[in-house]
Amino acid sequence: MTPPAVSLVVLAPTLIVVGTGLLVLLLDLLPPRGGDRAHLSTVALLGLVASLFTTLLLWGGRGRAFRDMIVLDNYALFFHIVIGYAAALIVLLSMDYLRRLGAESAEVYALVLFSTAGMLLLASAGDLIVVFLAIELMSLSLYVLAGLFKLRREAGEASMKYFLLGVFASAFLLYGIALLYGAAGSTNLDRVAAAVAARPRDPLLVAGLGLVMVGFGFKIASVPFHMWAPDVYEGAPTSITALIATGSKAAVFAALLRLGAAALRQQPDWTLLLWVMAALTMTVGNVVAIAQSSLKRMLAYSSVAHVGYMLVGVVAGGPTGVAAVLFYLLAYTFTTVGTFGVLTLCERAGEEAVAVRDYAGLGRRHPALAFTLSLFLLSLVGIPPLAGFVGKFYLFGAAVQAGHLWLAVIGVLNSAVAAYYYLRVIVYMYMREPEAAAAGLRPSLAGGLALAIALVGIVLLGVVPAPFVDLAQAAVAPLVR
Amino acid sequence: MRPGLLTALTLLPAAGGLVLALAPRERGPLLRGGALAVSVLTLALAAALYAGFDPGRADYQFVERVAWVPSLGIAWHVGIDGISLLLVLLTAFLTPIALASAWQAVADRTKEFVVTLLVLETGMLGVFVSLDLFLFFVFWEAMLIPMYLVIGVWGGANRIYAAIKFVLYTMAGSALMLVAILALYYQHGQATGTFTFDLPTITRWVVPPGSGQNLLFLAFALAFAIKVPVVPFHTWLPDAHVEAPTAGSVILAGVLLKMGTYGFLRFCLPLFPDASLTFAPLVLALAVVGIVYGAWVSTVQADLKKLVAYSSVSHLGFVMLGIFALNPQGLVGGLLQMVNHGLSTGALFLMVGMIYERRHTRLIADFGGLWQPMPAFSALFLLVALSSLGLPGLNGFVGEFLILLGAFQVHRGLAVVAATGIIFAAVYLLWMYQRVAFGPVTHEENRRLTDLDLREWAVLAPIVLFIVWIGVYPAPFTRPAEATIEALIAQVQAKAGVAALR
Q1: N or C end of chain B: smaller count of CB under 10 Å?
Q2: Which of residues 112-131 of B touch A (CB under 8 A)?
Q3: Spatial separation of the C-alpha atoms in residues A159 and A110, rounded to whole Å
């Protein structure tokens, strides 16, 4: 028996990120140059850029490795792009932010890279075992990162809560995987999907899929599994919050859609379940966000709502629905990283500025920053010509096409509700006078660069969406045959 | 394809705004002058549009079409017909006036103000020239934010409440329109095999009559009715008008409200003719309720700006009455009345703003005998008030007369009730005028008020010119629209399958 031929090219983007993570840890052992760790973040950034570059080189390629456990196709590569951008921007944002707050260390960047590697792996997982391993790699790194500010009580709460609920969800996921394996006789996603298609009413398969969905639901923070999100978002360092809100969600959506597009298609019961989940997630997220006075908590609930919008695309299904989710993920990633990015640049009396009140009068004191944040918020509302608008248009269009008219109606009405709390921030920035100790700007070149990239991203996606729509459609092609 | 006149016209204000955004903020005169120059140049392009417009043709002119998102059937498709021509002219005409009116009133954050107003102009022009449903919706939504900022940043004491109310009302309305646009897109695509948001293409297709068409109509109509506003969706309007700065009120009354009525003309009638006929009685009734209710509420207002705001509800009721009379007189009258209302109400807001700048009050009770210190102002104010109440020889009369003529053929009783709106208009406007301008000077501080200065003359003179011109010789303004409106009526008749519209 010959050992299977292993093509490492299939894993190249992930391997580069893992390698960079190890390199960062090694470099940390070298004698520090005057305690300066700036070179570590630069290495991490270069690694992510290299991985992104490799991804672009691989575009259009197809391959499988490790007995079909790893799949390389445009679908995986699309997610590699989304995750790679998110991670690179987050490293840029973290540089000055973490140094300012005294939390910079080699471990931070190594953990960001490892968790990114987990996300990339998840996007190209072709087997439930890899799905589980990738989710664990991603999550374990994030649990630690969430508690980075060791001395803050909220950080401890965030890390602990995230860990406990996260492993709880992982247990569900694993149990579900076990049941699916028992019923389908394989952990390969295609075979599981084939088994589900052949025996949609098999109780083992139904239970297995249900438990897997619970696990995924926790990770993307969809209602009713969203309770951890606000506390974790609030306690985690803001740049890490951005990673949790974007990269990790994108990765889990990758697995959910890969499984879902194959297994859940044309199964009315599952559609109904997801329909209810989408409607609840949108509505609960938006309604609760209205009542928040902390910007970070507000964004946490708003990101719950955005998951709801994306679930609308999952419900719609088919090439259009999945492509719409992919496009929305790209738009959402740029917008969300940008929004949290602005937060990393602001502080009030030496503390992070997280209350909406802290931003009163920002338009007068820092017009450029206020304008930038306004554009990100307007993209989250879905005001044209920004990325969020095209994303919603595409998503709700897919829902209408699939005949889910009422879900689209719930979605657009939710967008109108959301306008209230996003615009409230703009009210504070432009229409109210600053209070005594208002948020000040801590300029950062790296942070500014990250914001500029994100800003260009949302404007580009909004004004010239055509190439990105084509990209999303090309990414879906290998999935929906 | 070479960008043409219409694209240049639409994008010029925003482009100018972006350039001005780079200018230093201390240079107030430069910013104001630059913005004025951009808007006047836009007006010149609009005039060129009028000059090159062929009034004999009913189809779209100056059409430009460039694929935008080909895979979804979205294009940058612009063009104008007789209906949109007038509204483009109105927009391009009122924006420089609004900018000039804010010359002194907006001293705080001048740069942001002029940039916002210019971006707003692009949004408004875009709404009127779009021939692609996606493009239309983009402009329709994008225009909300600058208006929100104009009210919320430069408005009065209660501005934040008014600004948020304005946005939420409009967004809630347009949310359902978005779903309707998408549903229309897929229905058309599935029926014809062409998935496109192209308005002329979709208009050539007949939406199957029945409950589906009715729902689509209602979704579009709700968005437009909130914008017009049709009673009972009008409650955002008094707040927004009263809190907005003068320039904002002028734009709001002059152009934004017309987007609603324009939407009915451009989308509801040609796309959903059966539903339009089904719901016409309801719309007509609401229009008449608006006419009478707006007039009554205006009568009892103590605040000048609120009075003018409620009078808009009444006047826009007339426009709706004319449109849903669905005959040539009514439609032409309704279209002309849109322009008239923009001019007259715009001028009223400007003049209320002028005395507010002098006295910092808008209460009617704080004035009296203004004719003595400000004769020129009072004379013009009288002229504008008379135009607003529809005195023959001025612009308001022509529009209202045509509307009532059209409405009379459809429903005699409604027309009679609507006509009382003209009488009530005379009551609230003349009574208000009497309390403000006639009699002895009741407040000492009013004695020293200065009359109109050169800038204020320059702001008002063009409007007054057109008020008289349309009143005496309306043909140049109605002629370009006649062919379009006849074609529109023919289209509705053909699609709805009725020989003659009642």
Answers
A1: N
A2: 112
A3: 18
